[in-house]
Amino acid sequence: MIGVSESSLKRWVDDGRLRAERTAGGHRRIPLVDAVRFIRETAATIADPALLGIGELDAAAVAATRSRGGAERAILAATIERKPDRAVGVLLAEFLRSRAVAAVCDGPLTMLLSRAEHDAHESPSGGTTVRAADALGICRAAVARMSSSLAEPAADAPAAVVGSVGGESAAVRAAIAALVLKECGYRVADHAMASGNGHVGRESLVCTVFDRGAALPAVARPRATDARVEQVWMGPGAADAQARGGVRIAHSLGELACLASAALPPHAENISTRPTRTRSTV
Fold first, then answer.
1. pTM score of the predicted model
2. DSSP 3-state assignment of 136?
3. 17 Cβ contact list (under 8 Å, min separation 6)
4. Is the pLDDT of residue 61 over 80?
């Protein structure tokens, strides 16, 4: 898949650079999540994307990411043409070439959502409209694919609660935030944030994503008793949601990742992730 010899793979496995399991016959089997981790950490070239076994990811999607701004152009064109699989494929190619999920989320994913929100108000002519439903569907599919390619946090990893206030756009942005937190090492739980604080009792971080113009009811806003939990608000409407003391506003997914990493309990740095054993590549 990445165009190297079998002996190189064996050497990297034996050196501990690439995790693998041993079969009963003594063969090295590389779980999908570890193959993806290795590709992203080493910036390996994807020579044959079809071998990764992800339907939307093909050579054209990988090629679109090689020029400056190429990914964004390809994603917009595919969305306008109502070819969601092509758009998802380019997003996945960007994910494989990025060391941090937040870079993809702050880049082409946010670009696509922002363009859809803009077009919903401006109604551009000439058949160049990005429909909100199409953009949201593409983002949901890409986030699900990326999440399944990340190792699952350990059972004793810190917990985070992610919720949204507003419509479907806020819910999709919350799913994107949850993806970023998963890569940071959190076990993420969904929670309806329309009422209450959304706490599950032992979480280290609560992230609430706001649509423009949306606000929590006064009784649901963080109180002084929530000081032990990192409270983060983000989204188009976060700045206008009347946050009280102790709430941090994240203006990007990269900023959320920084806040989340700083909020990890001291022992969490030693918590390892456990790979999902759903699919493997040789």
1. 0.85
2. helix
3. 38
4. yes
